[in-house]
Write a structure and sequence with these properties.
The protein is mainly beta and 881 residues long. It folds into two domains: 103 residues, Immunoglobulins (Immunoglobulin-like); 581 residues, TonB-dependent receptor, beta-barrel domain (Maltoporin, Chain A, Beta Barrel), CATH 2.40.170. The chain has seven helices and 49 strands. Strand 8 and strand 9 form a beta hairpin. It starts with a helix and ends with a helix.
Length: 881
């Protein structure tokens, strides 16, 4: 497609977005928050327009080749990941004094391989290889081109390139890292480099997710991608860790897959977020230590060490994180009957929270030879969370006259312990892109919880409205997950490739939860007590076939998954669960196809269409009929009758790499049949009688889950990364979505539809002033995000505007030390609000999980490339001789 045509299309889109923004602005003149959002939206779309028009038209296509190879250590023959590869025409072929006509570069993968695609043909090239701890290498590469120039394409495999270790002092070791952009795009994923996210340093993975384009995080730390819940992986595998249990300082990068292929777990209906943890492979000994403190109650520390010697690479890290704070929640409710208001209820809660956890992770890589690697990783995580919540309640009659009041105090204590073990075998064959990977992972853990809830109601004169109610909860449980996976990839020729693999996943959970009514010195066990266990099993296999037809590349895939969830409530002898497919005639419910079609317009622009079918299985708490009374005005209960929802997802992508930046535009459609949807209603008289001794209000709201008829999402998402001048970098994202839900419960129609959008801007600036010790190497980062109101089946979620800011100063020789100062939630506006408007009640509420925090973090990098773990032993042997 000609560049002028694309530019014209973009101008039309730009004008449309500006008109939409003006409309939103006019609607929201009376709302300060919406005004800020509209102005921010306008300015950021303007940035997109300016940056996009700066790109250059592509050059006419000539003959192209692909150059591949593998980088290894000359002494140990072990693979070298993360090396920078650059290729330019050999100087002999260029006119003297002129810059090279082109240049291409790549980074070696974990198996040491690299690919330089779409390289313009030349008789000879100069290959330049640089990486930490090794001497740079320049090598001449000569190519014999097949066919007629301008028509054919070929592949040149230059084989193994050996690098010599470079013995350097501490200072030089700490600065030879290669700077990476904040955001990198691939056709099937976006990669976010956490190292540049200075606002999250010293925090958790939740803080990291808040600052990633395409993601939104609610007040409870739950992450959504395009308004759907993604599956969380750690290093490509399932985990029992929650995001707030993963230290931000342990994360190297985060990968977002919005529409995964058949290679990935079919239960990723909302996409996949893959958290990749750090694992250093630099030669010698190196490490990073950091310590931080702040308010309220913030304290963190981290130590990471790595030793690489000959065929071994040892790594380990330990992290401690603590935070506190007081949060506020408010609820305003009208209860109705036959359309008329029967009474009012208001609630204001204050909660003092304290959260602490620490983690230890260590492991080793054994490079058997240049093609075989064995790796083992072990992790331990434990934590303790405390809360002290006080609620003030007002009960008013139909005339809004105060009738009586209430107070409720809840003291809670939760503990957890987690263990994770992973064993991985990687084999690279004669070609670096032909490989076999096998891994086994086992996650296990235990948890405990305890709470004491005291509820008191008062008449207006201060006398007791009814007897006080005291409930004690005590719970314990265990979890374990086992995953075994085998993946094989074989490029048959330059264009044709096959992939296949198998996976087994088994998860076991048991919980024993007791609820007791306390009366003086005696306790009575309530029916709310729950003793259950469940087992989930998924066996899967997949096959992908990729090839090329003329100028199109395509990939066809099919995944099959047999799944079963079996749960038992041991005290009541009640069984719940599902099995899919349950009959042979329903075998299609176990099939998950995918299709990717890519058209490369030129070496900088790609178009892609993709489709996948996924599944969203009910989670165990969604099918478990246990009643949770932690909040007696908003109780929750699972629905054993839930069935899985099936998702058909379509995407059309346009990707453009231009000077100092890149742009990704996506138009998507997602159909969720049988969408698992939250549903809220007033508590029934029957359930209220069962909970009479648990301090539950007769006008409490019961939150549960249903299968909607369907939910359709129509959307467009645009992400721009652009570097202005020398040191100013912007990453901008906007997601526009129209949502339509069709759902009924008995005669109650829950259908709803509406438009929403969320937009995020990440701006980074680095001062480079060698003449000034104070200002040189000073980094600034601002992250600002706005979420518009969003429809839900019975109402809408409120808008939200949040900003984070941080600065980082690097100093000492070779930037070995750094001092960071960050403010999360500058304006103290990170809160989640919702409005429910039903036939039986109207409720307006908001809640918070975290509060504005200030954090100061100091970090120091150290190392010795000449470190030899076995030097002392060899020295002793020499002395003995």
């Amino acid at each position: 497609m000609p560049f002028n045509a694309l530019q014209g299309l973009y101008k039309i889109l730009h004008i449309t977005l500006i008109k939409a923004t003006c409309l939103l602005y006019n609607i929201s003149m009376k709302k300060k928050l919406m005004m800020k959002a509209a102005l921010l939206f306008f300015c950021q779309v303007f940035i997109v327009a300016v940056a996009f028009t700066q790109q250059r038209s592509s050059q006419p296509e000539n003959a192209k080749i692909k150059i591949t190879g593998i980088i290894v250590d000359k002494t140990t023959q072990s693979i070298i990941a993360g090396a920078h590869i650059q290729i330019v025409p050999d100087q002999a072929d260029d006119e003297k004094g002129k810059e090279p006509a082109f240049s291409a570069d790549a980074i070696t993968k974990l198996d040491g391989s690299f690919e330089l695609k779409e390289v313009p043909y030349a008789a000879s090239y100069k290959l330049i290889v640089t990486t930490v701890g090794y001497k740079s290498l320049q090598q001449q590469v000569q190519v014999k081109k097949a066919g007629t120039e301008g028509v054919s394409r070929s592949t040149e495999d230059i084989g193994k390139i050996q690098l010599e270790p470079d013995v350097k002092d501490l200072a030089s070791v700490t600065v030879t890292t290669t700077a990476k952009p904040t955001m990198q795009f691939g056709i099937d994923r976006k990669i976010f480099n956490v190292e540049k996210n200075i606002t999250a340093q010293g925090g958790t993975a939740v803080d990291v997710m808040k600052n990633i384009p395409s993601l939104t995080v609610d007040v409870n730390g739950n992450v959504e991608m395009r308004n759907a819940s993604p599956q969380i992986f750690v290093d490509g595998r399932p985990t029992i860790l929650t995001l707030d249990q993963i230290p931000a300082d342990d994360i190297e990068r985060v990968e977002l897959l919005t529409n995964p292929s058949s290679k990935y777990d079919a239960s990723s209906a909302g996409g996949i977020i893959n958290v990749v943890l750090k694992k250093n492979k630099r030669v010698g000994f190196n490490g990073l230590a950091s310590v931080g403190a702040g308010a309220p109650g913030v304290l963190n520390g981290n130590l990471s060490l790595n030793v690489r010697q000959k065929k071994f690479n040892f790594f380990g890290s330990e992290n401690y994180n603590r935070s506190g704070g007081s949060t506020t929640e408010k609820t305003y409710r009208q209860n109705k009957s036959g359309g008329a208001i029967t009474d009012y209820f208001n609630q204001v809660s204050g909660n003092e929270r304290k959260r602490r956890f620490n983690s230890v992770r260590f492991g080793a890589d054994y490079y058997i030879d240049d093609k075989n690697t064995l790796s083992f990783t072990q992790g331990f995580t434990n934590g303790r969370f405390n809360n002290n919540e006080l609620q003030n309640q007002d009960y008013l009659d139909a005339s809004a006259v105060l009738n009586h009041t209430g107070k409720r105090n809840s003291l809670g204590d939760n503990e957890f312990n987690r263990k994770s073990s992973t064993l991985t075998y990687d084999k690279v064959f004669e070609r670096p892109d032909k490989k076999l990977t096998a891994d086994i992972s086992y996650n296990s853990g235990t948890r405990k919880s305890a709470s004491l809830i005291t509820s008191k109601l008062y008449n207006l004169d201060g006398s007791s409205y009814q007897p006080d109610n005291v409930v004690r909860n005590a719970g314990s449980g265990s979890d374990n997950q086992f995953t075994a996976q085998l993946d094989y990839s074989n490029p048959i020729n330059e264009n044709k490739k096959i992939e296949f693999g198998m996976r087994t996943y088994v998860s076991n959970t048991s919980t024993n939860f007791g609820t007791y009514s306390v009366n003086g010195g005696s306790e009575t066990k309530l029916p709310l007590s729950n003793n259950y266990k469940y087992r989930e099993t998924v066996n899967a296999g997949y096959f992908n076939y990729a090839n090329k037809y003329k100028s199109f590349k395509y990939q066809l895939g099919l995944r099959m998954e047999l799944s079963k969830l079996s749960g038992d409530m041991l005290d009541s002898n009640f069984h719940f669960g599902y099995q899919y497919p349950d009959k042979l005639k329903n075998i299609f419910s176990a099939m998950f196809p995918s299709f990717f079609l890519t058209k490369q317009l030129n070496e900088n622009e790609d178009l892609q269409f993709n489709y996948s079918r996924r599944i969203r299985r009910p989670r165990f708490w969604e099918v478990n009929p246990f009643v949770d009374i932690n909040d007696p005005l908003n109780i929750s209960q699972g629905n054993p009758a839930l069935t899985p929802e099936y998702v058909n997802s379509f995407e059309f992508n346009y990707f453009n790499r231009f000077k100092n930046g890149s742009f990704l535009g996506v138009v998507y459609f997602r159909n969720n049949g049988g969408d698992i949807t939250d549903y809220s209603d007033t508590i029934s008289n029957h359930l209220y009688q069962q909970l009479a001794n648990a301090g539950v209000s007769p006008n409490a709201i019961l939150n549960t889950y249903i299968n909607a008829g369907y939910t359709n999402r129509y959307g467009a998402e645009f992400t721009l990364q652009k570097k202005f001048f020398k040191d100013l970098e912007f990453t901008y994202n906007i997601n526009l979505q129209y949502r339509n839900t069709s759902a009924k419960v008995n005669d109650l129609n829950l259908s709803n539809s509406g438009f929403n959008y969320d937009t995020k801007l990440i701006a980074g600036y680095k001062i480079t002033a060698p003449s000034s010790k104070l200002w040189n190497n000073l980094n600034f980062q601002l992250v600002t995000e706005y979420e518009s109101p969003r429809v839900i089946p019975q109402g809408r979620n409120k808008s939200q505007f949040v900003s984070d800011f941080a600065l980082r100063k690097e100093f000492m020789k070779s930037k070995a030390a750094a001092l960071s100062v960050s403010v999360n939630d500058i304006f103290n506006t990170r809160r989640y609000g919702s409005i429910y408007d039903t036939e039986r009640f109207y409720q307006d509420s908001y809640s918070r999980w975290s509060v504005r925090t200030f954090r100061v973090t100091f970090s120091y990098k150290f190392g010795d490339a000449d470190f030899d773990l076995f030097k002392k032993r060899r020295g002793n042997e020499d002395n003995e001789g």
